[in-house]
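Final report, results section. Input specification for complex C-07:
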Amino acid sequence: MCCSGDDPRRVERDNKPALISRLNRIEGQVRGINRMVQEDRYCIDILTQVAAVKSALDSLAMQLLESHARGCVADAVAAGDGAAAIDELMQVVRKLR
Amino acid sequence: MCCSGDDPRRVERDNKPALISRLNRIEGQVRGINRMVQEDRYCIDILTQVAAVKSALDSLAMQLLESHARGCVADAVAAGDGAAAIDELMQVVRKLR
Amino acid sequence: MCCSGDDPRRVERDNKPALISRLNRIEGQVRGINRMVQEDRYCIDILTQVAAVKSALDSLAMQLLESHARGCVADAVAAGDGAAAIDELMQVVRKLR
Amino acid sequence: MCCSGDDPRRVERDNKPALISRLNRIEGQVRGINRMVQEDRYCIDILTQVAAVKSALDSLAMQLLESHARGCVADAVAAGDGAAAIDELMQVVRKLR
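Structure output:
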């Protein structure tokens, strides 16, 4: 569920635990890259890890974007003020490119 | 400097401290996103932070790629075995897209 | 306007002439790249043009995506079947990455 | 072969016919998108085609970039002035992102 409850800016997410564990993993991956730099590891190996973190962030972003579109945006449209919600959606789609 | 010294897989980087502090910052940003999810923050605010982390990783990757091309790849070409180094370079350019 | 009229799959666009002239320009750019290859032009010059065409396509896509979200998706949500429209929207957002 | 012959800015490519036929196809795809807009076709169908053209351009770019790295960049490094060639390479890698 997204954008439910009294404060529209608070978002109760069913998949909250899963999102948190993914973010913990991504944090660990970044720490791993840090260690590789500290250990003077080969550039290609480090860059391969950077690409993996980017791809993990991408898929997290798509999941959040989808649940936002289904929740907040759909609710806003149904409530008659979809224009602002779609503005926001498109701005973040552009930022994520 | 890149790919210097006896072990070609160890890379002494002049900008090592700067890379490490950037990675510390990125790690902090990911932790911040984690906190936003835990606090049920609005999706667009979280997605904006995810886009910022991706862009920080992108610029870190371009910096590493450039120093790798100038160091390891140029050294390999000069030593007569550039083909394998360019293979590696192109593979990681594709992964980072 | 988007997704108006009797056939929901036909889309009357106010900006149709502008879209057509942009696509004519993009077609001309691709023809230009073709000529550069035929004239054995320098790779970097050709790649710079390829990047320009990609960026023109990107901005065309964002414009179409925005008008689609405002039109078809909002209409579908208001008509009570937003889920399928949001599925479609997210699939194409992923393809355009 | 890339960057051979007397004029370093002229590039004789073994795969020239293949590149030209790919560019002809991409040109045809862009013309097809133009026709879809003229026929008021559904946004998602048009956007799917735009994504296909972008992906075709991406793969063309990677092929050109690879042959450039193997040819012009390697030749320049071997001739002792790799720095400028690697500058150029990195600039276009950034543009193509």
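The two ends of chain C are 25 Å apart (CA to CA). Helices of chain C lie at 16-38, 43-78, 82-95. This concludes the modelling results for the funded period.
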